[in-house]
Amino acid sequence: MEKMSRKLIELIADRFKLLASPTRIEILQHICDGERTVGELVELTGHKQANVSKQLGLLDRAGLVRRRVEGNHVYYTVADASLPQLCEIMRESLKMHRDELLTTLEE
């Protein structure tokens, strides 16, 4: 791994903190498939509208999602193409270590 500056390390840590929310990952999962409105995301996730809007606002301010207004609707989509790849890398990592994780959980 290439050595990173302290500032870059802090920026990466901040990005991971932002992604440390299961609700945000769930929202991102749904908008990776295409544009979604807040109402659609509420229906898909079962979370309250206020919470979905709050999480989208945080993701938007961080530049992770893009919003598009059409009439009375706001459509959200992933703005950073690396996010689905990052989630897939983590999913594969968890699958590779599944047996180890199961053993740990059983103890």
Q: Would you kindly provide a written description of the structure presented here, covering whatever features stand out?
A:
This protein has a domain at 7-79: Orthogonal Bundle (Arc Repressor Mutant, subunit A). Helices cover 64% and strands 13% of the residues. It has 6 helices and 3 strands; from the N terminus they run ααβααββαα. The protein has 107 residues and is α+β, with helices and mostly antiparallel strands. The N and C termini lie far apart (34 Å). Strand 2 and strand 3 form a beta hairpin.
Major sheet size, sense and barrel closure: 3 strands, antiparallel
- Which class best fits the helix and strand makeup? alpha+beta
State the helix count.
Answer: 6
| Distance from first to last alpha carbon | 34 Å
CATH superfamily label of the domain at 7-79: Winged helix-like DNA-binding domain superfamily/Winged helix DNA-binding domain
- The unreliable regions are none
Please state the overall shape, judged from the principal axes of the Cα atoms.
globular
Helix content: 55-70%
Q: Roughly what is the average pLDDT, rounded to an integer?
A: 91
Widest sheet: strand ordering: 1-3-2
From the 3D structure, determine the CATH topology of the domain at 7-79.
Arc Repressor Mutant, subunit A
What is the correct CATH architecture of the domain at 7-79?
Answer: Orthogonal Bundle
Radius of gyration: 16 Å
Strand content: 5-15%
Q: What is the CATH class name of the domain at 7-79? A: Mainly Alpha
- Topology, number of strands: 3
Which sequence of SSEs, written as H and E, runs from N to C?
HHEHHEEHH
